[in-house]
Structure formats: structure tokens, C-alpha cells
Amino acid sequence: MDRAAPLSDVDPEVASLIARDADRQRSHIHLIASENFASRAVMEATGSVFTNKYSEGYPGKRYYEGCEVVDEVEDLARDRAGALFGAEHVNVQPHSGAQANMGVYFGLLEAGDKILGMRLDQGGHLTHGSHVNFSGLLYDFVAYGVDPRTEVVDLAEVRRVAQAERPKMIVAGYSAYSRILDWAAFREIAHEVGALFMVDAAHIIGLIAGRAHPNPVPYADVVTATTHKAMRGPRGGMIMCKEEFGAAVDKGVFPNAQGGPLNNHIAAKAVCFAEAATQGYRDYAAQVVANASAMAEAVMAEGVRIVSGGTDNHMFLIDLRSIDEDLTGRDAARLLSSVGITLNFNTIPFDPRPPYRASGVRIGLPAATTCGMREPQVEEIGRLITSALRNRSDESVLDQVRGRVTALAVEFPPYPEDFPGHV
Ligand SMILES: Cc1ncc(COP(=O)(O)O)c(C=O)c1O
């Protein structure tokens, strides 16, 4: 085997799958709220020789030799994140957002402890107590939800449930919610009941980094996040916490939840934290929020209902029942995929349908904004979505939509033509 041979020679099958997905990425409009297009610099670091190094432990205390350089890169990533978010202690080792949450629960709680989180069918995440996830299997989760009238998190209910249940930890954070949470109010409730306060900022961490969303770090005992969603870094997780919890959180990640860290991803996290500290990134984060709001307004102007009536962050949920009582989220997502718009179906608060059919679609703007789209483009896409969903059996309308989607995808590609590597 020639170890210096290119992928296309060594494994044409995988090379062609990569090429096919690059083509899919180039030819569609991407509205999955948790996806983005990483920079060349991030991908170079992810594809670097750091992939070869084992380094169980933390900088200065490893179980392997030869860690001088990975110690430096991990310290760099931690320092950059600490400066960017104002965090006292940072752990950049979690392989993913789920493992960041696992590390925190393992480090700060005992199995069986009670945790208060957001209802999963109203926007919370799998790792906030789903019965099919380690969180629901190992911990005793109780939940708060949104107000049925406003569809906004009901702080009075959070307080009421917290006082009745006396959880060890309160988790604020979500996968499908479009409003800003009041970090100070959550902290106050956590203090009142003697609970730890954790924010799962997986979705919004990029907006926070870009100063387009309030930062939970000063308020929370611990903040978890992913680096691959709005943040636009490599796939992975991270944890920030007060110094007093640092040692326990580190132990929760390694050795409790994980083995050796992915040093190539840690290097790429360092790169993305440097990118996020620039004015260009702040402009990007502000544009993501402006785009989400503009698209939501354009969709509402077509007479379609948006959950909670709009958005303050990078995403929103369409209530498909306002288009057609019988239209499920799954069918809507499939239809939109067939015209070149990629998104995901999602339950909406108090959804009468089960999650695999759902009554909503979730729309996020981080990826489209990375491609350079601004208000005129995203407003048009909002109208194209409405038009496709209203004319599902009219092939001529669907063809017109497909044509515009392709034109926009070509005009606003995720990477320039001459981008090197695997795209
Ligand atoms: C709020 C929240 N937490 C955690 C995660 C888990 O991240 P990962 O998929 O990297 O495990 C997600 C992912 O969607 C999320 O939305």
C-alpha cells in the first residue's frame, strides 16, 4: 500500500462518496439549524497529523509520552475560548455536544439525581432527559415547558416546578426554540432552590461568540456547547465553568465519559475560536440573526404561522397546520428536499402528532449566511418554501421553485470554485 497516494487512488469508492456529498452541499440551499460550512483553515487542522496522537489526560498530566505539542495546542484552544467567552475554566475535549453534557452530569452529579430541563417535545434536547438517551436512563429528569399562549418559556412554571421538585441541577438550553432565555432569571431560580445552573448553548454558542446573543457564562455554573453548529468550527463539544467546578468537570469528561481526546479536532477548535474573535465573525453572527428574522417575517407575510410569532436567534419553527391541516412535518421536509431545500421536520409545542411525523419544520440560517446570503435572498427563499408547500401537486410551480433554488445555490456556494481539497 502506498501511504502517500491520494484518496482517489487508494479508495475511489469513498472518494466518490465525498465528491457526491460535496456536490449535494453545493447544489442545495441548507437550512438545517445545526449545520454550517467550516473554513478551509478549520478543515486543514481537522485533517492534520494531530489525528495520530494519543494523549489521555490533560496538558501537563498525560498518561502518554510525546504530548509536548498537543499540550500546547490544547492550552491554546482553552485560552482562546476563555478569552472569547470570559470563562474561568474550559474543557475542549468532549467529542460532541452529547459528550459535553455527559461529562458535566458525570462530574457534578450522582446517578439518580434530579435534573430540571426543557420539555423535549417543546425544544429541549435528547440529552436533557429522553428515555432513550443515557440522560433519561441514568438521571431523574423533570421538565418545564412553554406557555401555551405565547409559546415562550414560562419562567413562573420553571420556578414552580423547581420549588416543587428541588432538582440538583437546572438546565437551560434547547435545540428548537427561537427566543432569548433570561439567564439572570434562571440563575435566580437555581439559587432559590439550591440547584446548580447549567446552560446548554450548543445551538447559540456562535451567536454568543459573535456578540449577537447574551452570554450565559457570567450567570451559569457551567455552560456546554458544540463547535460545529452556528460556531462554524469542527464537529465537537466544549465545556466552560466556574473555576470551583473545573476539576470535577474535567474528571467527568476524562476518565468518566471518554478516553483519549481528538487532538486534530482540538486544534481545529483553537482555529475556530480565533476566527470567532474577529470583526468579520461578529458581522456574520449579526447577519445570521438578521437573516433569520427577515425570513420569518417573509413567511408570516404569506399568512403562515411561526411558533411564538418570530425569532430572536438563528432559527424558527413553521406551524404547517397554518398551510394545511393534513400536512405533516415529514412530508413537508421531503417535498422541500425534492426542490433543493434541505431542512428537518420538528415537533412544535403541544404537537398533536408524534415526533416522526410532527407538525413543524425547523429552519436555521447559519449555513445560508456563511454562503453570503442576506435579507433579499432569504426573504425570497421564505416565499419559495411557502409556495412549494402550498402547491405540492402542481409540478409547474415546483419546477419554478426548483429553478430559483438552483440559481441561488449556484450564486451563493458554500466554497469558492478553486477551493482546494475535498469539495
Ligand atoms: C441543545 C443541544 N445539546 C446537545 C446537542 C448534541 O450535540 P452532538 O450532536 O454534537 O452530540 C445538540 C445537538 O443537536 C443540541 O441541540
Summarize the structure in short.
The chain has 423 residues and is of the alpha/beta class.
Can you characterise this structure?
With 423 residues, the chain is an alpha/beta fold. 45% of the residues lie in helices and 13% in strands. The strands form 4 sheets. The chain has a 7-stranded mixed sheet with strand order 4-10-9-8-7-5-6, with helices on both faces. Strands 11-12-15-14 form a 4-stranded antiparallel sheet. Helix 3 (40-46) packs antiparallel against helix 11 (263-276) and helix 7 (155-165) packs parallel to helix 8. It is globular, with a radius of gyration of 22 Å. The two termini are 25 Å apart.
Q: Given the structure, what is the number of helices?
A: 16
Number of strands: 15
Q: Structural class given helices, strands, pairing?
A: alpha/beta
* CATH 4th-level superfamily of the largest domain: Type I PLP-dependent aspartate aminotransferase-like (Major domain)
If you compute it from the alpha carbons, what radius of gyration comes out, rounded to the nearest whole angstrom? 22 Å
What ranges have pLDDT less than 50 throughout 5 or more consecutive residues? none
As laid out across the biggest beta sheet, the strand order is: 4-10-9-8-7-5-6
Largest sheet: 7 strands, mixed
Reported by name, the CATH topology of the largest domain is: Aspartate Aminotransferase, domain 2
Shape: globular
The first-level CATH class name of the largest domain: Alpha Beta
What distance lies between the first and last C-alpha atoms, to the nearest angstrom? 25 Å
Please bin the fraction of helical residues.
Answer: 40-55%
Spell out which ligands are present: pyridoxal-5'-phosphate
Strand content: 5-15%
